Amino acid sequence: MEKIKETPLQTELVEIRRHLHQNPEVGMDQPATKDFVWQKLVEYGYEPLACGKMGITCTIGQGEKTFLLRGDMDALPLNEDTDLPFRSENGAMHACGHDMHTTILLGAAKILKEREAELTGVVKLLFQPGEEILQGAKDCLEAGVLENPKVDAGAMIHVFPFKDLPIKNVFVAPAGTFMASADWYEIKVEGVGSHGSMPEVSVDPINVATKIYDALQTLSAREISSAERFVLTIGEFVGGTPGSSNVIPNSAYMKGTLRTLKEEVRQQIKKRMVEISESIGQAFGAKVTVDFTNGCCSNEIDQKVTETVKAGLEEVFPANVLQHSPLAVPMMGSEDFGEISHQIPTTTMFITAADTELMLHNPKIVLEEEVLNFGANVYVEAALAFLESV
Known about the structure:
By secondary structure, the protein is α+β, with helices and mostly antiparallel strands. The protein has helices at about 10-20, 30-45, 100-115, 135-140, 205-225, 265-285, 305-315, 335-340, 370-390; strands spanning about 50, 55-60, 65-70, 120-130, 155-160, 170, 175-180, 180-190, 195, 230-240, 245-250, 250-260, 285-295, 300, 345-355. It has a seven-stranded mixed beta sheet, with helices on both faces. A four-stranded antiparallel beta sheet has the order 10-12-8-13. It has a two-stranded antiparallel ribbon with strand order 7-14.
């Protein structure tokens, strides 16, 4: 790539990324990360503002149009299993690349300061917590992230491993639904415990829970059209106490995720999950509750914004913009940036950041720092392309 060479900024971004990687924080509780990012923005000449519980915003430029750039900051509650000298040892890990995203956005902030005279509008930066738990975007929206100034459009970057693809390529998502919605749920079954020899005086919650489990599988087979893509997963099933093989427990529970591409399908399935679960509980004498704990909308890509951004990137990085999707689109993975995409026109960009078969969220994943400077410039060029568009 000819337009971006090894620079002092790349060296600085590597240092930032390694600090963030070695000191991950999860969820909405990210005081050290927030303080670190805040101080960097002040160092670069910004006047950062708090956004919600732990987010940060700042702006640069003047004009009628405002473009939002978002970077997520949170890690996963995962023990890192790499040989990196700056690996995390606190029980959390940036296995999804959010340390890279935060670093890339800080790089964009510094470049934008250097190129401020070129701006024909306003660029608003959002450093967001809580993406992995699907809470951060909603919290920032409630705090007014799209106001003062009013945001017209926005973009996010996600680094991604692609086997057999060179790093430092960018894929701009096609228009339409790009990523699925997500809902986390918990189904609690309250029965009546008993001695294992006397099931007739119990209401066995494990028996009830297994029937709910089986019944939910019929949603895709018999209730929702085969033309609709969705994924209903039960990833945790707990009933009884280890070592208590002769005890019928009082309760059992299941936890899982629901992912859909259409909002009407999402709401229909959630409604039927509650009806089916509660009805089975009633039939067998158990009390069943279904709670949807966290969730986010699908990630929608606006055609005009994505075409504008892609054209701008192709002009600056003609050899680095992928013309064909390396992913099956739409993806069933989720991004809480989807909440923002339902409020303003947005686009999403993926940057090839590792040539490996390992996926994100793997404790062994290693992402290449060589993409940091490139990613920062991609953000800048995306913002300039939108602000300069008619």
